[in-house]
């Protein structure tokens, strides 16, 4: 049981009882503890506001590049993870995580490569030390162009 004491130092009195199954007796412990709780806002919302295919020349390689413009609300993220899955969002094809530095406003561009044309489910997760938020989208990649 826990009883709050009348002290002004925000301490609480704790009385704990433990069973000792071997000896059939009880152990009583009494004492005080003190702690501080910090409430943080966290990352509240993530939105993919634009997806743009990057035009590539043949000499730049075969992978199609897509830029995702992402915004968020709440605290500023420190890392971003992108999961590329099949169109049903059930089978992961790749996972890429990167640390990021966002100052002042949460608006960032994430560039990802796609090895072959097709339809993909994209999950973009922004995170910090205390929270994570996710946005998802379906994208069709057609040899350097995306829709």
Would you give an account of this structure?
By secondary structure, the chain is mainly beta. It has a domain at 43-141: Sandwich (Immunoglobulin-like), CATH 2.60.40.10. It has strands spanning 2-4, 12-20, 25-33, 43-54, 64-74, 79-85, 92-99, 107-114, 118-127, 132-142, 145-146. Strands 7-6-9-10-11 form a 5-stranded antiparallel β-sheet, with no helix packed on it. A 3-stranded antiparallel β-sheet has the order 1-2-3, with no helix packed on it.
Beta strands, count: 11
Q: Which class of secondary structure composition applies to the elements?
A: mainly beta
For the termini, the CA-CA separation is 60 Å
CATH architecture of the domain at 43-141: Sandwich
CATH topology of the domain at 43-141: Immunoglobulin-like
Pick out the low-confidence regions.
Answer: 1-8
Q: What is the 3D shape? A: elongated
Order of helices and strands: EEEEEEEEEEE
Count of helical stretches: 0
The CATH superfamily title of the domain at 43-141: Immunoglobulins
Instruction: Using the coordinates above, name the CATH class of the domain at 43-141.
Output: Mainly Beta
Strand arrangement across the biggest beta sheet:
7-6-9-10-11
**What is the makeup of the main sheet?**
5 strands, antiparallel
Assess the beta-strand content as a share of residues.
over 45%
Mean pLDDT: 81
Helix content: under 10%
Radius of gyration: 25 Å
Domain PKAT KLD: 71-121
Protein name: QNR71 protein
Pfam families: PKAT_KLD
Organism: Chloroceryle aenea (American pygmy kingfisher)
């Amino acid at each position: 049981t826990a009883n709050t004491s009348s002290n002004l130092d925000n301490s609480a009195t704790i009385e704990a009882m433990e069973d000792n199954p071997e000896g059939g007796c009880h152990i009583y412990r009494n004492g005080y503890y003190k702690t501080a709780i910090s409430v943080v806002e966290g990352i509240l919302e993530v939105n993919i506001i634009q997806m743009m295919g990057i035009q590539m020349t043949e000499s730049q390689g075969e992978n199609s590049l897509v830029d995702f413009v992402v915004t968020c609300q709440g605290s500023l993220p420190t890392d971003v993870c992108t999961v590329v899955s099949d169109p049903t969002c059930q089978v992961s094809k790749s996972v890429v995580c990167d640390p990021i530095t966002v100052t002042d406003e949460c608006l960032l561009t994430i560039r990802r490569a796609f090895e072959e044309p097709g339809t993909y489910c994209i999950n973009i997760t922004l995170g910090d030390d205390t929270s994570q938020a996710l946005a998802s989208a379906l994208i069709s990649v057609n040899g350097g162009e995306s829709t």
